[in-house]
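User: Sequence recovery, please. Input:
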């Protein structure tokens, strides 16, 4: 069964958040595509603002160091390394997030730009889920994310296109591409859709950018719908019994 993990990380839960509206469009389109084709699918939603991932603590770091000392075991090997109740709690907060990511064919991320980077809510999820040995092993074992697709919906109040004055200030989308690449997601499996100048409607000084903002949003909506169709159809095509040989045992 094809599976989608949908993460939203805008702190704005009011319904105005552009990233949330676009990721909701993706999720609706993806699910409808499966429904219309008579295919079953699995959809998991995580709102990182409503249900924030706790920041890392000493116990997480101690357990992580122990995992590194013991050869970076996969998640199934971590419980044998637990050094007390605090580490057990740290792992209990971590493992479900890891399992959700490993189980997903497609990961959809709503990622607003905050101070030129991703939101702290998304960064907390990234830091926790990237437990040593989960995706990257020093022995070169293939990453369990090698076949995973990632669709990032990036929103930003200003414009960061090539040649614009702030082009060098985008630490949001290059960061996410670099991060998922280092976790073993193939570069061609990471798709980024951007909606720019989202503040133009609000900020009087940006009034001359309103047309550009509307055009950027229209393109983003089209791209989101196209990616949702493509991802749903690809999942269905890949769902042969041997389609995910890299997926670890025990992950559905
Ligand atoms: C805390 C905060 C920091 C922001 N920093 C930036 C920034 O550095 N650059 C920018 O272009 N927009 C910035 N913005 C504007 C947001 O990127 C913009 O409003 C975007 O649409 C937010 O995503 P959302 O609509 O999905 O909530 C910031 C907004 C907030 C709330």
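Assistant: Recovered sequence (252 residues):
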């Amino acid at each position: 069964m094809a599976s989608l993990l949908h993460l939203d990380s805008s702190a704005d839960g009011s319904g105005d958040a552009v990233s949330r509206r676009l990721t909701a469009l993706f999720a609706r389109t993806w699910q409808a595509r499966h429904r219309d084709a008579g295919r079953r699918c699995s959809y998991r939603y995580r709102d990182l603002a409503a249900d924030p991932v706790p920041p890392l603590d000493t116990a997480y770091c101690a357990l992580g160091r122990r995992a590194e000392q013991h050869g970076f075991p996969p998640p199934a090997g971590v419980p044998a390394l637990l050094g007390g109740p605090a580490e057990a709690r740290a792992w209990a907060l971590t493992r479900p997030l890891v399992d959700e990511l490993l189980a997903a064919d497609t990961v959809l991320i709503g990622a607003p730009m905050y101070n030129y980077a991703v939101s702290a809510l998304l960064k907390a999820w990234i830091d926790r889920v990237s437990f040593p040995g989960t995706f990257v092993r020093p022995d070169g074992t293939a990453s369990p994310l090698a076949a995973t697709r990632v669709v990032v919906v990036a929103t930003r109040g200003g414009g960061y296109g090539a040649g614009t004055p702030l082009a060098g200030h985008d630490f949001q989308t290059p960061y996410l591409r670099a991060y998922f690449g280092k976790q073993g997601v193939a570069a061609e499996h990471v798709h980024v859709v951007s909606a720019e100048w989202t503040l133009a409607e609000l900020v009087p000084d940006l009034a001359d950018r309103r047309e550009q903002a509307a055009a950027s949003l229209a393109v983003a909506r089209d791209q989101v719908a196209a990616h949702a169709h493509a991802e749903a159809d690809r999942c269905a095509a890949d769902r042969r019994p041997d389609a995910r040989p890299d997926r670890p045992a025990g992950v559905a």
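The longest strand covers residues 2-8.
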